[in-house]
Amino acid sequence: MQAQSAAPQDTQDNDEIDLIGLLGTLVDHRRLIAGVTGVCLAGSVAYSLVATPVYKANALIQVEKKSSGLTGLDNLGTSLGKESNAVTEIELIKSRTVIGKAVDQLRLDVKVSPHYFPLIGKSVARRFKPEIPGELNEPLPGLGSYAWGGERLKIKEIALPEALLGESLQLLAGEGGAYALLDEDGDELLQGKTGAPAEGKGVRLTVAELNARPGTRFRLSQSPRLNTVLQYQSDLQISERGKDSGILNLALDGADPAEITRVLDEISRQFVRQNIERNAAEAANSLDFLREQLPGVKADLEKASSQLNAYKMKSKSVDVAAEAQSVLQQSVDIESKLTELRFQQAEMDRKFTRQHPVYKALLQQIDELGRQRGQLAGHIRDLPETQQEVLKLTRDVEVGTQTYSRMLNKIQELDVVRAGTVGNARIIDSAAVDLRAPVAPKKALIVTLATLLGALLASGFVLARRALNRGIESPEEIERLGLPVYATVPLSEQQRFLEGELQKRNHGEAVPLLTSQHPHDLAVEALRSLRTSLHFAMLEARNNCIMISGPSPGVGKSFVSSNLAAVIAQAGQRVLLVDADLRKGHKHRMFGVPSEHDGLSNPLARDSTFEKAVHTTEVPGLSFVPRGRIPPNPSELLMHPNFAAFLERASAEYDLVLVDTPPLLAVTDAAIVGRLAGTALIVTRFGVNPAREIDVTVRRFAQNGIEVKGAIFNGLEKRASAYGRYGYGGYGYYQYEYKSEKPAGN
User: Please, are residues 671 and 538 in contact by the beta-carbon 8 Å criterion?
Assistant: First the structure.
């Protein structure tokens, strides 16, 4: 027998993207895509309905510019009354000082929440509206330990040892306001009653209010204070409305509108209170500084006055000349300014370093006034000696008098400021929540994104599977390998139903073949066409034995061989169907033959006869040989001369012998059977076997001296993705169906 060599595969690459094919693939799998999209849509809707809404509370605070007169002297605004920018105030609001006081005031480190039923419990409780105070929602039968709405637990005092900080404790409600506190392991820590302090195992607890059914559980925890402060620092959102507007917007998100409103209001109040205390402290510091300097200024003034009076009495000079009067006024102004600037410098020494820009600017002003004073000193030296001395002493008196008077005035002002400090920050809008518009979850967005994500994931999966699955989808691909396609068998929905019935029925119960149950099915018509093709293909065959194999399992060999045998038998020929898969053959189930009955393995092992191995079927002219008992050495049995003798007798007694073998690429049994059969066919399946796999199968047979006559393309599906790639030539059985007319009267 001359082996047939497969033609080389067309390996020409095509870099063009087949958009029509991709669209067709999506259309072919529209049910899968629609199903996944529907599941994502339903899941997102369900999540949107049960998810806890998150609200946002907002408050407004105005930070005004500080008044320059709140410090000591007129020109101290730059240093002592510096304007606080928005960034500074935002950081002050978020400071541990402000938020920590709010945490302590509201006991925010203590968290209490009822134990709701998973997934839906919180949603049910949220929708419960009690008609009377203290009313509880009715629980579902058998689920009374969960909270369903109306439950309330208020803690007045709690003190936990450090080992229990951050752990989730359980409070179990009892009868008449009694309760028990349990740790994470369920061990009891203490028992108590509402309104009375309770202690146990280092825990001190006072419950102010408990409204719940007996058996209801609450989760109770106390976090370390610093952790709570840091958490609220992270959650608090602060921004300035408009550049340099001084209007700060505070926002806080949370599931409990009342809780976040209360927290945001308390943070606002603590900031304003801290701002007032800060400004009052600043005024007090300036006041203390002025009072410290006042005695020295007064002493200098008294000393200057005494010296002036003594000199006038000594020199008999009373008035200052007109020329010296002008110089005196200029000198007094310069010395007054220098005195004020030195006071500012003394105050700045407590707040800034000498490298600070404000400090440097102050030093430049002092240097400039010193230069002017030096120039004025030159004019003074041109005056008579008596006038110079009088001018100097008079200048000291007037400068001291002005400085002393100003300091007395500022001390009085700062006393008033300290007593009535209101700060430069005030609450414009207290915290409020829009209950009609929660910030999360955004239901419409979630549903839309989930639906799109489902569609994209399903489409991506379909396209990825198409790209990874290189299974042939057209008989033309097989013929390019040089292998004729004898028949293209469409996928039969009726056959799927029969296979399902086969799985449901017990062993020994036969299921009608598709040929008998649905003789006009398109797949049966394709097998009739195959029967005609085989008639001519076997004209030159050395015997009437046909071997049917395939590259891999799951290609439909059993379906093709069984129904082909029935179709040929219906044409009036005597046909013997042999199940030569001694490992996993299952045709005995299709024909209702128990597995323990004699089959092919029995006469091969010489523990039965040919006659006992052959079984009749419901199809006239069709006989069947099951696999028999599974032998330990299937390949050796098929290589034994007993198998050749078995086929010779079968060939002599029957018009046609069909031998169904295991897949060639899995085991070598098909190659053994093929050397004895006159005709060899392989079954390939739509979308399952790649062209490379078919080519390897044909070459493997050729290496064993077996010529594969042709292929049967099974399971052809009608797919939109085939348009544009292969035309519609291979889909002819889907286009036409030819049935006999019903008899008259039926």
Answer: no
Instruction: Give the three-state DSSP class for 548.
Output: strand
pLDDT of residue 492: 85
Per-residue 3-state assignment (H helix, E strand, C coil) for 478-495: HHCCCCCEEEEEECCHHH
Q: Which helix (H) or strand (E) holds 656?
A: strand 656-660
Residue 321's alpha-carbon distances to 333, 391, 430, 685, in angstroms, are: 18, 9, 67, 128
Reading the block at residue 741, the tokens are 């007319």
- pLDDT tens across 445-478, in order? 999 999 999 999 999 998 888 777 778 888 888 9
48-98 residue pLDDT tens: 888 889 999 999 999 887 654 434 444 444 444 444 468 888 999 999 999
340 vs 478: CA distance, rounded Å: 105
Confidence band, pLDDT 50/70/90 cuts, at residue 510: low
In Å, how far from its chain's centre is CA 574?
Answer: 66
Contacts of 543 (CB under 8 A, 6+ apart): 647, 651, 677, 678
- 572 φψ region: left (φ > 0), alpha (ψ -120 to 50), beta (else): left
Length of the chain: 746
Helix (H, G, I), strand (E, B) or coil at 9: coil
Top-ranked range on mean pLDDT: pick from 242-246, 292-296, 438-442, 513-517: 438-442
**CA of residue 177 relative to chain centroid, distance:** 42
pTM for this prediction:
0.60
The whole-angstrom separation of Cα 453 and Cα 36 is: 10
The beta-carbon contacts of 276-282 under 8 Å, at least 24 apart in sequence, are: 276/421, 276/422, 276/423, 278/423, 279/66, 279/70, 279/421, 279/423, 279/424, 280/417, 280/418, 280/421, 282/70, 282/71, 282/80
Identify the bridge partners of residue 693 per DSSP, sorted by sequence position: none
Residues 6+ apart with CB under 8 A from 62: 246, 247, 248, 425, 426, 428
On the question of a cis peptide bond just before residue 441, with omega within 30 degrees of 0, the verdict is: yes
Residues 6+ apart with CB under 8 A from 557: 548, 549, 550, 660, 661, 663, 683
Give the contacts of 577 (CB within 8 A, at least 6 positions apart).
561, 562, 565, 587, 622, 623, 624, 625, 658, 660
Q: In what order do the strands lie in the sheet with 545-549?
A: 485-490, 708-716, 679-685, 545-549, 656-660, 575-579, 622-625, 615-616
